[in-house]
Write a structure and sequence with these properties.
Helices cover 37% and strands 19% of the residues. It has helices spanning 28-47, 61-67, 70-75, 95-104, 149-164, 179-189, 194-205, 212-223, 241-246, 250-268, 332-341, 366-382, 397-406, 417-422, 443-450, and strands at residues 51-52, 58-60, 78-81, 87-90, 113-117, 120-122, 134-143, 172-178, 274-276, 290-296, 304-310, 325-331, 354-358, 387-389, 411-415, 424-429, 435-439. The radius of gyration is 29 Å and the shape is elongated.
Length: 454
């Protein structure tokens, strides 16, 4: 292209400053919130004895097609063919990945395993409040415990995370159900085939997205007769006549007893906001037992926040015998909305504690001033105080202080000719305007006193 044929800056299309649709940029204030959420997740998971793992965001598409469900791989994933002609997916969830990892080293690992991770995951769907195309998610999984003590521990951990965020039990509700119970009802009470049972599960998962008449019509098409959920007394413990008859089937009775045991144990442990929700099914195909979801009870954000359940069969996809597994995933977007609605998000604090600014430095004293500023900065940093210096800033002292304040830096140290000559400093606390002069020799002690939050 010749110089004459090059597009001029006026005609050249300008690049957008917006991020890709459905993903986020994290400016310092945004990352501060995200790190706060991550820190609560980590501290709580580790307090229960869970250890962190990680993996690549790239996985074989086959992994999700096998067990997450066709809807996930066909409609909601970022899937492409790489240069080696392999079908690759940006992970839409973490559970298949951790199952693959555990299966890969199954004989080398010491069970039970308590693992957690905070991966970013990708879903190609319509962005809306609480749902983006990329988010980060806490995944907590317990492998190798067949008894329902595993469900009790995981739900207790999830409850503790909410409490550690400052939530009250009245703010959220833990809804619990059982895929094992639903499957037994479908098989024994309604006598459905595997195909009918799978179709009905998918319909139930979409129930809240359609009106009651449409759901009833679609369910009747699948079942071949009118369908209704058996009333096991979610509120008062009294079973309906149909439920009493259904309990006579051994598989239904065993699954219901298991569900009752988990709910009773949670309530005995002081978790009072657990309720039975027989319509709760969760969408992934790999769940095999108890499932649960945590719901926000605020009318402004009344929705599911996160959930999980038991998935004992998933590791068998990799050619191994099944391994008992229970886990849940909690997304950063929904939990941030929950915290924002209740004013539970922390106020941003800069990691920088002190800004060094200069005033009245002549050109001939510039080198001396720079040397002294470096000396002060080094003394502060050796005392573990995060420090930035506005080197040779030409703005007046007022504008420099405004810059520090806009960057949420709580203190400034003012250095001028007098401070350099006497090796003293003027410290200003921006929130109050208080000033204090001190010799450099006692600076660390004074700053540590002024910055107790450090």
């Amino acid at each position: 292209m010749t110089e004459k044929s090059k597009p001029s800056p006026k005609t050249q299309k300008m690049l957008s400053t917006e991020p890709y649709k459905g993903v986020r940029d994290f400016y310092p204030e945004d990352l501060f919130i995200q790190n706060y959420i991550f820190n609560i997740w980590r501290k709580t998971a580790e307090s229960f004895g869970y250890v962190e793992y990680s993996a690549s965001i790239l996985e074989s598409a086959e992994l999700y097609r096998a067990k997450s469900g066709e809807e996930i791989i066909n409609e909601q994933t970022y899937t492409f063919i790489d240069r080696g002609d392999r079908e690759v997916t940006l992970r839409p969830e973490m559970t298949p990945t951790v199952a693959r990892m555990v299966a890969g080293k199954r004989r080398e690992l010491a069970f039970p395993l308590r693992w957690y991770s905070i991966p970013n995951v990708f879903r190609y769907e319509r962005p809306q409040r609480g749902r983006l195309r990329e988010h980060w998610q806490l995944n907590v999984d317990l492998f190798g415990v067949e008894k329902n003590a595993a469900e009790i521990e995981l739900i207790t951990l999830a409850h503790q995370i909410m409490k550690n965020f400052g939530a009250q039990e009245s703010d959220f509700e833990i809804r619990i159900s059982s895929r094992k119970l639903l499957n037994a009802i479908f098989n024994d009470w309604y006598e459905l085939t595997e195909t009918q049972s799978h179709a009905l599960q998918k319909l139930i998962d979409r129930k809240n997205k359609m009106d009651a008449d449409t759901f009833s019509e679609e369910a009747e098409k699948i079942v071949g007769k009118a369908f209704s959920f058996l009333d096991f007394g979610a509120k008062d413990g009294n079973h309906s006549a149909e439920a009493e008859q259904a309990i006579a089937f051994p598989d239904i009775r065993a699954a219901k007893e298991e569900l009752d045991e988990v709910m009773t144990a949670l309530q005995n442990n002081g978790i009072k906001n657990v309720v039975l929700d027989q319509e709760l099914i969760r969408g992934f195909d790999y769940y095999t037992g108890i499932v649960f979801e945590v719901f926000d009870k605020n009318p402004e954000n009344n929705r599911s926040l996160f959930g999980g359940g038991r998935y004992d069969e998933l590791l068998s996809l990799f050619g191994h015998e099944k391994v008992a597994a229970v886990g849940f995933g909690m997304g950063d977007v929904t939990i941030a909305n929950f915290l924002e609605t209740r004013n539970l998000l922390p106020i941003y604090k800069s990691p920088v504690k002190v800004a060094i600014i200069s005033t009245g430095i002549s050109a001939e004293n510039l080198d001396q001033a720079d040397a002294y500023i470096q000396k002060v900065s080094t003394a502060l940093r050796h005392s573990n105080i995060s420090t930035v210096s506005f080197l040779n800033d030409k703005k007046n002292i007022g504008d420099q202080i405004k810059t520090a304040d806009r960057q949420h830096i709580p203190y400034v140290i003012i250095i001028g000719p007098d401070e350099i000559a006497g090796e003293i400093l003027t410290i200003k606390k921006l929130s109050t305007g208080e000033e204090k002069k001190t010799p450099l020799s006692s600076l660390a002690e004074i700053i540590l006193y002024l910055l107790p939050e450090k």
